[in-house]
Write a structure and sequence with these properties.
Radius of gyration: 17 Å
Order of helices and strands: EEHEH
Number of helices: 2
Shape: elongated
Strand content: 15-25%
Strand order of the largest sheet: 1-2-3
């Protein structure tokens, strides 16, 4: 399972959501350091939530790869 964290965008009144790397680290899938929790808490009343496109693209690739691997044995049995 992947976790997400929010980053408060300076002066824009938005929260930008990132996907955290699965390995213990302080990085997101797009390579950024995890945002400061205090800054995020201060911006929780933000009007707009957005999602980091590079993080979601990396997540999509990882999930699709796992799905492809899971389907291989089933496909082999159907032949």
């Amino acid at each position: 399972m992947y976790r997400m964290c929010a980053e408060a965008t300076a002066g824009q009144g938005e929260l930008l959501w990132h996907v955290l790397a699965q390995k213990p680290s302080s990085h997101t899938l797009c390579g950024r350091h995890t945002p400061d929790g205090a800054a995020v808490l201060a911006a929780m009343s933000a009007a707009v939530d957005r999602y980091c496109p590079p993080c979601l693209a990396a997540l999509r690739t990882a999930v699709q790869h796992r799905a492809d691997l899971a389907q291989r044995p089933v496909a082999a049995r159907l032949r």
